[in-house]
TrEMBL record:
Protein name per the record: Inosose dehydratase
Domain of life: Bacteria
Domain Xylose isomerase-like TIM barrel, chain residue ranges per copy: 36-316
Entry-linked InterPro entries: IolE/XylAMocC-like (IPR050312), Xyl_isomerase-like_sf (IPR036237), Xyl_isomerase-like_TIM-brl (IPR013022)
Species name: Rhizobium miluonense
Length: 320
């Protein structure tokens, strides 16, 4: 199989071991175990988790001892509230400074004002915020400002569409991309969140199989359209037998995770075919972080085995 002219950097998120939205999931797993198993599975690093050191020198030392790198951290903005904007921007600047101090080059953001992904009593698909025109203006203009600041610091901002937020669907992702400066605002392509988020109206397509085909095509088209702006990738899949259950029963994000909505590439239970998406990225010369991610309950999905499954998938598809 052909290999990439310039290799991607392969990482995996700690969300397979523990969870930032719901810290009790896997909270008994120390970060040292996550780092050890990340290395054992054959990855180069990943983003930080809630139980990682927050003292930059301590985090850097832990990563160096494991011979791993920090890819990014998750940064939730609150730009659409229109209040305390300078405070929100200062918090973003602090995150950039922290990342820079530990050798990362990417900052991945999502707008979390009024988001419901951390609310256990609300549907992550139907109770999430819908932005009005002033909120869209605030979000896109402040993302441009934040992205320019990151750029000046030698960092890359990438926006992450996420279920439970105001930017969840492909249509909303396109609007955000078209309304922001391509020099400063990149896209964090998260295949799992786009597929799950778009399923809110899956019956409009027919049945679950009809939705799968349509979503597959739409995600491939999005990848092709914004290939030059994709600066970070979260490669994950959605379990085909859980997706209709999660939508029809209006699961919260917590319920969806605990029922196993997400899974890693290489799992035959995955609804998406991730190979064409990798081929598009390969053709575009993508050479940044390729992050495996699947928010899972580690008591049901063994994290190390899932990591090895995903790494085997990447090895088969990328040739290394």
């Amino acid at each position: 199989m052909d290999t990439l002219p310039v290799k991607m950097t392969l990482g995996i998120q700690p969300t397979g071991w523990t969870n930032d939205d719901f810290p009790e999931i896997g909270n008994d797993i120390p970060y040292q175990t996550i780092l050890e198993q990340t290395k054992e599975a054959g990855f180069d690093g990943g983003s930080t988790g809630h139980n990682y050191p927050t003292h930059a020198p301590s985090l850097s030392k832990a990563m160096q001892l494991s011979n791993l790198k920090i890819a990014a951290t998750w940064d939730g903005t609150t730009f659409t509230t229109g209040i305390e904007i300078e405070e929100a921007f200062s918090a973003f600047q602090a995150q950039v400074a922290f990342l820079k101090s530990v050798g990362a080059q990417d900052v991945v953001v999502a707008e979390l004002a009024n988001a419901v992904n951390q609310v256990r009593t609300k549907s992550v698909l139907t109770d999430r915020p819908i932005f009005n025109e002033p909120q869209w203006y605030l979000l896109t203009s402040l993302l441009d400002r934040a992205g320019q600041y990151a750029h000046e610091q030698g960092m890359q901002l990438s926006y992450h569409p996420h279920v439970g937020t105001g930017v969840m669907t492909i249509k909303e992702t396109i609007r955000l991309m078209e309304s922001t400066n391509p020099i400063y605002v990149g896209l964090c392509l998260d295949t799992g969140h786009l597929h799950y988020g778009g399923a809110v109206n899956y019956k409009d397509y027919g049945d679950a199989q009809d939705y799968r085909r349509a979503s597959q095509s739409e995600i491939e088209d999005l990848t092709e359209r914004y290939a030059s702006r994709i600066k970070h990738v979260h490669l994950k899949n959605v379990r085909r037998n859980v997706l209709p259950l999660a939508v029809d029963n209006k699961f919260s994000f917590y319920q969806a995770i605990m029922q196993g909505i997400f899974t890693v590439p290489g799992d035959p239970d995955g609804d998406l075919d991730l190979r064409p998406i990798l081929r598009i990225l390969k053709g575009a010369g993508y050479n940044r972080w390729m992050i495996i991610e699947a928010e899972q309950d580690p008591t049901k999905a063994n994290p190390l085995q899932c990591a090895k499954t995903a790494r085997a998938f990447l090895r088969e598809e990328l040739g290394w």
